[in-house]
């Protein structure tokens, strides 16, 4: 998947903590396990999970769940992030992944989930809206909008 991101020059998805991915799966997995425990003295690190979206025998995307919000995550990042490799886009994977992510967040006790995305990310906006996201006040960060999905209404997602 990383080779594909490199080819299409979308390397921006694997920066910061996630840059460990460029050093191979083992290092990436170790970093994800450490992230999932939270407790790093960092405003963007809270307990959570990273899940892989699998098609056959290949990874086609990832979903990032955050079980808590810091003031920084309230403005950008939210409770859920996701990405799908370019060659697998447009097949509904992100939508299904977000639906399942919302189920998981409800199961760990959250009543609502915050999802943020850039104003010009039309695909992500559509994904969020299909999963019942309701737009709230924009972030203080430039170019960032915010949505809330009520988790007791997750069953009302389009297509369910
Ligand atoms: C955003 C992203 C995750 C979407 O993944 P995906 O698997 O292609 O999403 P889906 O197939 O589930 O749904 C995409 C929807 O957006 C629509 N869409 C995609 N590109 C679009 C465009 N340029 N204009 C209008 N709608 C568009 C699709 O038609 C589809 O809606 P539909 O089911 O009503 O037809 C993917 O583009 C991606 O990984 N982008 C880079 C990382 C990123 O932006 N992550 C989100 C951060 S908030």
Q: Could you describe the 3D structure shown?
A:
The chain is an alpha+beta fold and 160 residues long. The chain has one domain (2-156): Aminopeptidase, CATH 3.40.630.30. Helix content is 29%, strand content 24%. The protein is built from five helices and six strands, in the order H-H-E-E-H-E-H-E-H-E-E. It has helices at 2-7, 25-36, 71-75, 93-107, 122-130, and strands at residues 48-55, 58-66, 80-84, 112-118, 134-136, 144-150. The strands form two sheets. Strands 1-2-3 form a three-stranded antiparallel β-sheet, with helices on both faces. A three-stranded antiparallel β-sheet has the order 4-6-5. A hairpin with a 7-residue loop joins strand 5 and strand 6. The radius of gyration is 15 Å and the shape is globular. The mean pLDDT is 93.
């Amino acid at each position: 998947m990383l080779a594909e991101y490199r080819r299409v020059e979308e390397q921006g998805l694997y920066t910061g903590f996630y840059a460990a991915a460029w050093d191979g799966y083992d290092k990436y997995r170790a970093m994800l396990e450490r992230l999932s425990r939270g407790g790093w003295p960092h405003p963007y690190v809270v307990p959570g999970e990273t899940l892989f979206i699998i098609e056959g025998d290949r990874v086609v995307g990832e979903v990032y769940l955050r079980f808590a919000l810091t003031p920084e995550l309230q403005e950008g990042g939210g409770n859920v992030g996701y990405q799908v490799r370019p060659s697998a886009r447009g097949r509904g994977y992100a939508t299904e992944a977000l639906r399942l992510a919302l189920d998981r967040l409800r199961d760990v006790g959250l009543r609502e989930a915050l999802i943020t995305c850039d104003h010009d990310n039309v695909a992500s906006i559509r994904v969020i809206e299909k999963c019942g996201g309701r737009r709230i006040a924009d972030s203080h960060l430039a170019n960032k909008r915010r949505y809330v999905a009520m988790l007791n209404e997750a069953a009302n997602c389009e297509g369910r």
